[in-house]
Amino acid sequence: MKENSPKFGVMLVIFFTVFVEGVMKRFDYFEDDEENDDEESESLGRPLTPKEYKELIEEERALQQQDVELSYIDLNQKLLQKTIKLCEKSLFWNFYSLQTKLNMISKAFLKLKNLQEY
After folding, report:
1. How many angstroms separate the CA atoms of 86 and 8, rounded?
2. What are phi and psi of 4, to 5 degrees?
3. Which of 12, 47, 87, 102 is deepest in the core (most CB within 10 A)?
4. Do residues 98 and 53 share a domain?
5. What confidence tens digit (pLDDT) does each residue in 17-69 have?
6. Do the beta carbons of residue 104 and residue 87 sit within 8 Å?
7. Which domain holds residue 90?
């Protein structure tokens, strides 16, 4: 098709219309803008009082502490998984009793955890 032909122009308009609608749907441009405007005006309308500011800081610190705790738990779980895999590589693993296996995993986990902290 030639660039000057009417069919090319129609095809180009259709392409851009479909493309723009796809982008707008992808980034949620069709949401209720009124709700977002109300929230923005509330947060930008007046300055925070010192009490509100302290409350926001305390909430943020609590959220950060939770993030740190979740990260720490996740690291411990990954370390435990690796410890179990390491212990399973023992030559006589299948012959040990459950209590012996648990003791081995516990000791190995604590040793690896101490190595990880240093």
Report:
1. 65
2. -90, -10
3. 87
4. yes
5. 655 566 555 555 545 555 554 454 455 567 878 888 889 899 999 999 998 99
6. yes
7. 49-118
